[in-house]
Design brief:
The strands form 4 sheets. Strands 9-10-8-7-6-5-4-1-11 form a 9-stranded mixed β-sheet. Strands 12-13-14 form a 3-stranded antiparallel β-sheet. A two-stranded parallel ribbon has the order 2-3. The longest helix has 19 residues. A hairpin with a 2-residue loop joins strand 9 and strand 10. It is an alpha/beta fold. The chain starts with 14 loop residues before the first helix and ends in a 5-residue tail after the last helix. This is Heme anaerobic degradation radical SAM methyltransferase ChuW/HutW. One of its GO terms (molecular function) is metal ion binding. InterPro entries: Aldolase_TIM (IPR013785), Coproporphyrinogen-III_oxidase (IPR034505), Elp3/MiaA/NifB-like_rSAM (IPR006638), HutW (IPR026332), rSAM (IPR007197), rSAM_sf (IPR058240). Keywords: Iron, Iron-sulfur, Metal-binding, Methyltransferase, S-adenosyl-L-methionine, Transferase. Its cofactor is [4Fe-4S] cluster.
Length: 450
Amino acid sequence: MPDISDFYAQVSSDPLTMAFAEEKKTMPSLARMRPQPPEWDGGSFAEFGAKAFMARPERPLALYVHVPFCHHHCTFCPFYINQTKKDFSKEYSSLLLKEIVDTAYVLREVVDKRSVDAIYFGGGTPSDLDRDDMAAVIRALYDCFRISPDAEVTVEGRTTGFTADKGKAWVEAGANRFSLGVQSANTALRKKLGRISSREEVGEALNGLCESGASVVIDLMYGLPGQDIPMLLDDIRYISEETGIAGLDLYELRRFPDSPLDKAINRGKMPAMPEFNEKARMFGAAYERLYDYGFEHFSPKHWRRNTRERSLYNRLAGQQTDMIPFGSAAGGRLGTIGLGTARDIGTYAEMVGRGEKPLSRITPSPISADRGGFSHELDVAMERLQLPDMDKWPVSHRDSGRKLLAQWKEAGLLVDSRDGNGMSLTCAGFFWSDRLRKLLTDFVAAPVAG
């Protein structure tokens, strides 16, 4: 039986770097990240689709469209699949249009019984699609599904090639949010990462898209090879003062074995990534500077400058929302059934051509929310930047849980919530949030002494 002290944090003057010992994270190799085809005896999508679609009609519904094509393979990215080639846009968008129509036909008896809350075009690089091709796909989704009037419709992309003309056309088609992988606005650092555009070109692209009327957000990374705190803070200054973006996601760079980044560092062609303590200080510096520039921290990774920016898809995706996948290498779920489409583009095209939903993965997928599990309560609370109220904890762990949270508060990881309900995470608490989540999950899973 573990003792409650096994879950305590270290009390120090620097909780960002000293609350816990550094945990060596072993990232999976790219090969192990690819799902293996499972056994499935529940029939085809044509047989179970409508029933699964209506299994949880009260839950939010999202549509995810994957565009697994990139101009080139950026060194930090483990998700590259296909290279963008001439004429790919017309061919791939035609497949998407057919898949959308065929999927809606399978669901024809029930498709109008649920409204869609979010649509997300991810990748890959969806913005590599030609202007009119993407517009046609967006319109097809509106034609075939019941899209909520306040649905969030996001198109991911990179600043290179994501023109203001595309942005305007896609907003007219129904998009209202653009998410761009900037990672850094430092020109020299961007080139090392395989990003083409300079800082000035990044700013021009972002501001051009802002003029479309869409909410424009970016990904910003810390822990990049050769990056230091002044560089990161200058990125925040630049995007805050010289662009009109509505929000950003702040991510730590992860090093995946066998990725181009991993190989370049091993060969000495790129500098080493910052050490753990330096990354912690980077996070802390960025956290404070974003507040200085008027950004609101409103979900674990996301910051915004106005309430129009909701990051709705990202928030729903973490709550086991029903999500219909489209395109090659897309993932989703309906009810308790996990779905994944064919990763190989040739296989995907063949299946769509035959009129099949191009699924290569169909699996039973339990829902923690339906089980009333603490892990679900933890997910929901974390999304609100808090920990679960004590009445959401198992009765057997409430007394010991109060002691644990009091110790984490003493260690500088938690503060009392402003509304008086529960505990909120501090800056250091957010840096250690993955560790806190794991500790709490383990804590309620077994009897704890003390």
